[in-house]
Amino acid sequence: MIPVTKPFMPPLEEYQKLLQGVWEREHLTNNGPLVQELEQKLQDYLGVKNLLYLSNGTIALQIAIKALDLKGEIITTPFSYVATTSSIVWEGCTPVFVDIDLETLNLNPALIEEAITDSTTGILATHVFGNPCDIDAIQAIADKHGLKVIYDAAHCFGTKYKGKSVFSYGDVSTTSFHATKLFHTIEGGAVFTNDEDLQYRMSRMRNFGHAGPEHFDGVGINGKNSEFHAAMGLTNLNYIEDILQSRKEQCLRYDELLKGLIVRSIAVQEASCWNYSYYPIILESEEVALRVKKALEKNDIFPRRYFYPSLDTLGYVETEALKVSKDISRRILCLPLYVDLVKAQQQKIVEIIETNLIK
Ligand SMILES: *Cc1c(COP(=O)(O)O)cnc(C)c1O
């Protein structure tokens, strides 16, 4: 079976070695030494100042919205994972969808201004498939209208924009370290900010608002992560260069194999260094996409319709249909991509795609 992705599994002995220390200390969670070590090592690796390690990428979004005190309407993308929209609704705000760019599949900055009203307080954009948004254009609009910017950078481990980690942009960036992501800690996530005051508030929020054993500073939630998750992160971090390199090689190989066929992938944002975290293909029509998917599945190969459906179709949001997002979501497939995937498998995948493009 060839799934769309597989979690990276480090050597078990290396993970166990870290667990040995956990057993000795009997410190399982609550900002333990492995959590602190992971935060430090990730900051060093990514070249970012403030990283707060959290239990997942969804709580990261919720904490970001809460810490920035966003109210009313938040402009966002319909082409993302459901957590981007659900977090806005969960925090009592209203998502206002703006359509995506046809080439990058990211929020289209040219359409943002016409969606701004007196109730708009922020923009929550996703760097889709690890490909940065047009960050400069979005920031210029936010500055002009006094809006806060959050980036859902769940796909972005290793991506750079203008030479810096893409996590260092926006008022807050969030990410996910879920098992299906390029770098993972089984479950996990993080928030990033350059604002020390915001960093302080989010660190309190992560831990019920505790500012001491008997003192609380603002409302909080439980967004902490455990020593076991941090141990997985520390172990996986030793292999991050191999993971990034294999993703890149596989994506370039798909590019090569698919050359000349009637499919396209995404356009990478200018001035950025992409992490090759997903390999989406956009087919001619939904009919072709479903035919290709079915043919692959018959061969025990499981691509994924990602993202599908477009988030403006969720039952708990009110909006007009977003044309580009709706169209793309119907005819996009993410192809298998993971460390152990070999060339012969990629060749077979592309052969099946090729023979099913035309009926
Ligand atoms: C995975 C993902 C999330 C959610 O992260 P979790 O760690 O699973 O909670 C949010 N947004 C996007 C775009 C994602 O891909």
The CATH architecture term of the largest domain is 3-Layer(aba) Sandwich
Question: What distance lies between the first and last C-alpha atoms, to the nearest angstrom?
Answer: 25 Å
* Strand elements, count: 14
Number of helices: 11
Mean pLDDT: 97
- Principal-axes geometry comes out as globular
Bound compounds: pyridoxal-5'-phosphate
Strand pairing plus helix content: what structural class? alpha/beta
Query: What is the CATH fold-level name of the largest domain?
Result: Aspartate Aminotransferase, domain 2
Q: Provide the CATH top-level class of the largest domain.
A: Alpha Beta
Elements, N to C (H/E) = HHEHEHEEHEEEEEHEEHHEEHHEH
Main sheet properties: 7 strands, mixed
Q: Explain this structure to me?
A:
The protein is an alpha/beta fold and 359 residues long. The chain folds into two domains: 12-237, Type I PLP-dependent aspartate aminotransferase-like (Major domain) (Aspartate Aminotransferase, domain 2); 240-356, Aspartate Aminotransferase, domain 1 (Alpha-Beta Complex). The chain has eleven helices and 14 strands. The chain has helices at residues 12-25, 33-46, 57-67, 82-90, 135-145, 196-206, 227-237, 240-258, 286-298, 323-331, 343-356; strands at residues 51-54, 73-76, 94-97, 120-126, 148-152, 160-161, 164-165, 172-176, 189-192, 210-212, 215-216, 272-273, 279-282, 332-335. Strand 6 and strand 7 (164-165) form a beta hairpin. The protein starts with 11 loop residues before the first helix and ends with a helix. The protein binds pyridoxal-5'-phosphate. Pyridoxal-5'-phosphate binds at residues 56-58, 80-81, 83-84, 126, 152, 154-155, 176, 178, 189.
